[in-house]
């Protein structure tokens, strides 16, 4: 196993003076202007010919007089580090905010243009360039819009919308993988209400964590929330999924003005979705489930602010580190098998998991032996925001929240890049879709404890 290489860059703010906080927010439209366009989110590529609802990069800039932070959540399935670094470089040049003080994450809607190559979808190069520019535009606009402000953190729970999607099955049930094996001990998205279901393989996190911002005269300016639900997926592309519906719902509940920006980031939901596998499916109209989930989470977000303490002079801090982690690469025999599968499929589109993963295997053989994974922590007054560039399993988020010293912590997944799923070593041992080697899951088995260890160090550092 590769040795962990930590390259930490820490930035600490001097104490702020009372009333120093300024904040600006802006929802930058990032809906493409050219169609058709490829859509991430499935084994096979899909083409969108229109937008069902607009896509945004929702931007929040905080400034305590010494340190500036930018938080951006983009309606995208996953965003590669190269695109995010490009957007940060543009925004840094325009605003002076250091790139390591910018947190840019994807919501993980499965109905947005492809800017990362995963499974059957290749990046749309023109849209990727457009998106980087628009993200920078949004940060710049939010930065220019700064006014005197105050902020508060809060936490409430919405347990009814999250279900672990990895299930242990009855003994004797075979869980077949796309590599010709059947040793997996769990199945992702099993048949609903099946007698073969035993128990979920992991927990859920019902918490809705909220950072709310008001102007100095108490007008709602922005609300940044975090919830550990993968996505809903009942709206056709292009769509912001329930993340977009949340923005509308929370604005209405707060009776906010048109300048208000509501934002929902994806928490640690790598093994969690909105399907109760113990029950039969029920019929619903397109978008109905997204609206119901969004409304429930928005209700919890507003409730989280009951009795919240508002801070007009919070100290802002930032910490950044990069870890060198090993890559799980295929053996020569595995590549040979994959090439044989692809030879049989020549002349037509790939079908099913076996052929899809055969292509992934061939591509993974060309990956480097190790990658540098960016990790980030913001300290915002008495609370912390943690950023991980993966689809993080829920138990990792729960552990980070439990072990650090902050009263309120949220963990943002798919942030500052995309490095696939992040299961724990124990979940790797159970197998299942999220562990299958591909561009969607390639970090070494011991990646999560190494990442968690470094993040706990960063959390301690920004608390000083």
Question: How is the secondary structure organized here?
Answer:
Elements lengths: L5 E6 L10 E8 L7 E3 L6 E3 L7 E8 L4 E7 L6 H15 L6 E5 L18 H20 L2 E11 L5 E2 L1 E4 L16 E3 L8 E4 L6 E9 L4 E8 L13 H13 L7 E6 L5 E2 L14 H16 L12 E11 L5 H13 L7 H13 L5 E11 L2 E5 L3 E2 L1 H10 L4 E5 L8 E2 L2 H6 L16 H16 L2
Parallel strand pairs: 6-7, 14-15, 19-21, 20-22
Antiparallel strand pairs: 1-17, 2-5, 2-8, 3-4, 5-6, 8-13, 9-16, 10-11, 10-12, 13-14, 17-18, 18-19
Helix pairs in contact: 1-2, 3-4, 5-6, 7-9
Description:
- With 464 residues, the protein is of the alpha+beta class.
- The protein has helices at 81-95, 125-144, 241-253, 288-303, 332-344, 352-364, 394-403, 425-430, 447-462, and strands at 6-11, 22-29, 37-39, 46-48, 56-63, 68-74, 102-106, 147-157, 163-164, 166-169, 186-188, 197-200, 207-215, 220-227, 261-266, 272-273, 316-326, 370-380, 383-387, 391-392, 408-412, 421-422.
- The strands form 6 sheets. It has an 8-stranded mixed beta sheet.
- Strand 13 (207-215) and strand 14 (220-227) form a beta hairpin.
- Helix 1 (81-95) runs parallel beside helix 2, helix 3 crosses helix 4 (288-303) and helix 5 packs across helix 6.
């Amino acid at each position: 196993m590769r040795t962990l290489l930590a390259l930490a860059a820490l930035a600490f703010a001097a104490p702020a003076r009372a009333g120093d906080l300024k904040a600006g927010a802006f929802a930058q439209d990032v809906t493409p202007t050219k169609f058709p366009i490829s859509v991430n989110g499935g084994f096979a590529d899909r083409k969108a010919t229109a937008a069902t609802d607009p896509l945004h990069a929702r931007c929040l800039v905080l400034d305590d007089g010494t340190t500036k932070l930018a938080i951006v959540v983009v309606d995208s399935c996953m965003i590669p580090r190269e695109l995010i670094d490009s957007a940060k470089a543009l925004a840094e040049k325009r605003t002076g905010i250091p790139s390591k003080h910018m947190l840019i994450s994807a919501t993980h809607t499965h109905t947005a243009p492809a800017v990362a190559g995963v499974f059957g979808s290749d990046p749309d190069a023109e849209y990727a360039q457009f998106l980087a520019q628009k993200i920078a535009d949004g940060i710049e606009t939010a930065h220019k819009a700064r006014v005197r402000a105050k902020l508060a953190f809060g936490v409430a729970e919405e347990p009814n919308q999250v279900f672990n999607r990895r299930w242990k099955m009855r003994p004797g049930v075979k869980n077949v993988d796309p590599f010709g094996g059947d040793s997996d001990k769990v199945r992702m998205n099993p048949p609903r209400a099946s007698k073969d279901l035993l128990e979920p393989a992991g927990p859920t996190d019902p918490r809705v964590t909220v950072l709310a911002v008001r102007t100095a005269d108490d007008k709602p300016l922005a609300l940044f929330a975090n919830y550990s639900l993968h996505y809903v997926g009942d709206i056709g592309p292009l769509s912001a999924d329930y993340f977009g519906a949340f923005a509308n719902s929370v604005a209405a509940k707060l009776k906010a003005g048109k300048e208000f920006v509501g934002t929902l980031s994806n928490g640690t939901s790598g093994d969690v979705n909105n399907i109760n596998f113990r029950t039969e499916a029920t019929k619903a109209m397109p978008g109905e489930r997204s609206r119901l989930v969004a409304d429930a989470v928005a209700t919890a977000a507003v409730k989280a602010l009951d009795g919240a303490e508002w801070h007009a002079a919070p100290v802002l801090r930032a910490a950044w580190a990069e870890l060198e982690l090993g890559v799980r690469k295929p053996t020569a025999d595995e590549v040979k098998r994959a090439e044989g599968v692809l030879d049989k499929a020549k002349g037509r589109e790939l079908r099913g998991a076996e052929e899809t993963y055969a292509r992934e295997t061939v591509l993974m053989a060309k990956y480097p032996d190790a990658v540098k994974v960016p990790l980030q922590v913001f300290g915002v007054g008495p609370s912390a925001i943690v950023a991980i560039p993966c689809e993080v399993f829920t138990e990792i988020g729960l552990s980070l929240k439990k072990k650090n010293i902050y009263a309120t912590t949220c963990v943002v997944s798919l942030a500052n890049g995309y490095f696939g799923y992040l299961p724990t070593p124990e979940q790797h041992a159970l197998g299942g879709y999220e562990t299958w080697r591909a561009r969607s899951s390639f970090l070494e088995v011991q990646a999560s404890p190494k990442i968690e260890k470094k993040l706990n160090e960063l959390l301690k550092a920004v608390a000083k």
